[in-house]
Amino acid sequence: MTTWQPDILGDGYEQLVLPLGDDPDGEGEITATLVRYQPATGAPEGARDLPDRAVLYVHGFTDYFFQQHIAEHVAAQGYRFFALDLRKCGRSRAPGQTPHFVTDLEDYDQELEEALRIVVAEVSGGDVVLAAHSTGGLVLPLWLDRLNRRPGGSGAAGVRGLVLNSPWFDLQGPSYLRNVGTAAIDVLGRLRPRAAVPGRKFDTYGVSLQHGGWSYDLDLKPLTGFPVRFGWLRAVRIGQARLHRGLDVGVPSLILRSGASRFSPRYDATIDTVDAVLDVHQIARWAGCLGNRTTIVPITGARHDVFLSTPGPLATAFRELDLWLGWLNGTGAAGEPAGTGDVSAPPRPTGEHA
User: Fold this and answer.
1) Is 348 a member of any domain?
2) What are the boundaries of the region Disordered (predicted)?
3) What is the number of structural domains in the chain?
């Protein structure tokens, strides 16, 4: 294993390459990349008073970790922060590899378990809260369900809680199209796994993020997204079907989502205030399949990535996260989010985050 090296995000960020061996899908040697945020404290090296708890974040499709404001906010709440770029995603993709391509979501267990092992060791056996966005919000619950079946469950592995940001729990569209489409995806995913799903690619969401002032590497996160491959989509549909049958992640969960969805081939200002990628009603419908205690909070005016929203909804999302983390650690106010439910109106934001 290599040592921690400076990361592309600059001061305070380091990365560790995790070798994973040969790709099960035949694209050579693969790696994952663990990123950590270590803000300067002014203390001598080796004398830092680092927290004994951490957040480990996993990105979605056509994504990688670049959201420094999340790391810095989490650190201000008394957590170490780590993020994982999965195999063939973001920092981890080597030349010639198909972006984000896997034919079995369970393959991600390898880097998830190694990342968790490293993070638990970094916080001296302390608690870890897992966090994920979009497709990562499907991958993590499936992995946790498997982890929870082992002796001691998720808790014995060091996991304390789960935060999902607009998780991808179902395929968009009417039920009859999902049923017919899933059958076609299953066949084509077996026969032509690397073939791209046909259809026009839209830059609506990417343009909205750019209008919002969020900057990132367009080679790692193109405006129109990477091509969706039938083999990958088949793996997603298999994972979603497993979720729909019911999981048990073994820890409390917080689900943040936008208050509304709107799909459009062209950008306009309303796209800045809705989920332009997923159907939020599907997120609400399937959230109860995670098992354990689940808190669901719609954030009015939020984007698909609620932590890349405009300032007001972003402040609300951070406030909801802080309230839930306070409850999880036994330091929240009485009556704060501690149960299962879909909160109809989020609290008024108390501040703004750039």
Assistant:
1) no
2) 335-354
3) 1
pLDDT tens for 150-167 read 999 999 999 999 999 999
Residue 354 lies in a domain: no
Domain that holds residue 287: 5-40+49-342
For the segment 259-274, the average pLDDT, to the nearest whole number, is 96
The sign of the CA dihedral 309, 69, 338, 54 is positive
Span 85-114, mean pLDDT?
98
For residues 231 and 266, give the distance between their C-alpha atoms in angstroms, rounded to a whole number: 28
The model's confidence at residue 346, banded by pLDDT at 50, 70 and 90, is very low
pLDDT of residue 179: 76
Q: Is residue 251 one of the residues assigned to a domain?
A: yes
Q: Flag whether 296 is in a domain.
A: yes
The CATH number covering residue 318 comes to: 3.40.50.1820
- d(Cα 119, Cα 67) in Å, to the nearest integer? 19
Render pLDDT for 286-335 as a digit per residue (tens, 0 to 9): 999 999 999 999 999 999 999 999 999 999 999 999 999 999 998 654 44
Which amino acid is present at 241?
A: A
